[in-house]
Amino acid sequence: MKASVVDLRYEMADVLSALDKNESVEILYHGRVKGIIEPVSEKSCKKVREHRFFRLASRTKERVEDSMEKLRGRRYR
Description:
Layout: E1 2-4, H1 5-10, H2 12-20, E2 25-29, E3 32-37, H3 56-59, H4 64-72
Parallel strand pairs: 1-2
Antiparallel strand pairs: 2-3
């Protein structure tokens, strides 16, 4: 389905019904594609225990602040 920005504003029910039918919706702005809305697949949902940060502190001996600094990088140099 193709939908303009105006369609998103006034015809959102049609866009949502297309997503319910597992159709992708192309968003048009001045006739050109700006983005694509895709339906969520059920397989992409993961359990909390599968997330890589779950029980981070119990697997390592270092402080949580130190491990987060390694992941994010330093804020100030």
